[in-house]
Each structure stands twice: as structure tokens, then as C-alpha cells.
Amino acid sequence: GGFWLREMGLYDEAGTLIAVSNMAESYKPKLEEGSGRTQTLRMILIVSSTEAIQVIAGGDTVLATKDFVADAIAVHEKTRNHPDASTTAKGLVQLSSATTSTDETKASTPKALKTVSDASMKKA
């Protein structure tokens, strides 16, 4: 770290530089600067012949098209499989304006909180 990235290169397995590209400027910080990070670079290659090209994606690489993601979201939005929230898990929560409830499955509205706050201020 501690340098600016302005260009990138792609090397083959033998270490031969096979492509060079400019890129949007990006700073790669040092850990001592308080912000270390992994930098992921993407390069678009335009080739004249694909006969000799073999694309191999690593096991940790996940690829999804925009259409796949849009379709998956649309299907999910049409289902009722939206988990409820609890005190131990994120999820959807129903609002309640009740001021005397002990229900742990609903969240208080601002109106309920104001009512309880106003009542406690009157007692003080």
C-alpha cells in the first residue's frame, strides 16, 4: 500500500504481460495510515478471436447477471416468505401504538413513545 493505482496489467500463468489498461485513479492505503483494504480490479478485454481463450473462474468467484438478480428479487417480492423480526433476529416488524403492551413481537411507534414519555414527565 501507500500508492496510487492508475494502470493495471494482466499476466498469464508464465508471468507474461498479456494486457495493459488505464483505470480510474484509486489510492491503495498502507495499514499504518489506518485503512488497509483488498483492492479488486476489473478489466474488460476485447479480443479478435476466442478460439484460444479459456475462462476459468475460481471456486470463490460468484457471478450473476443483472437479469438473474432482477428476476430473483421480483420472485422474492411476490412471496410471503419474509421472516418476522424477533429480539434475536432481523426481519419484518409490525408497529404498535399501544402504551401498556408487553408484546416483544411489535415495535412502538413514535406516538406510543411520546405518550409514555409525556406520562412519565407528568409523574416526575
Q: What is the topology?
A:
Elements (H helix, E strand, L loop, with lengths): L2 E9 L5 E12 L37 H13 L15 E3 L9 E3 L1 H14 L1
Parallel strand pairs: 3-4
Antiparallel strand pairs: 1-2
Polypeptide structure, described:
The protein is built from 2 helices and 4 strands; from the N terminus they run E-E-H-E-E-H. It is elongated. The protein is α+β, with helices and mostly antiparallel strands. Strand 1 (3-11) and strand 2 (17-28) form a beta hairpin. The mean pLDDT is 87. The strands form 2 sheets. The protein has a two-stranded antiparallel ribbon with strand order 1-2. The protein has a two-stranded parallel sheet with strand order 3-4. Among the domains are: 1-45, no CATH class; 84-123, no CATH class. The longest helix is centred in the last third of the chain and has 14 residues, at 110-123. It has helices at 66-78, 110-123; strands at 3-11, 17-28, 94-96, 106-108.
Q: Into which percent range does the helicity of residues fall?
A: 10-25%
Rg, Å, rounded? 27 Å
Q: How would a crystallographer describe the biggest sheet?
A: 2 strands, antiparallel
Percentage of residues in strands: 15-25%
Tally of alpha and pi helices: 2
Mean pLDDT, all residues = 87
Distance between the termini: 58 Å
- Described by the principal axes of the CA atoms, the overall outline is elongated
Strand order of the largest sheet: 1-2
Give me the strand/helix succession. EEHEEH
Ranges where pLDDT stays below 50 over 5 or more residues in a row are none
Summing up helix and strand content along with how strands pair, one would put the structural category as alpha+beta
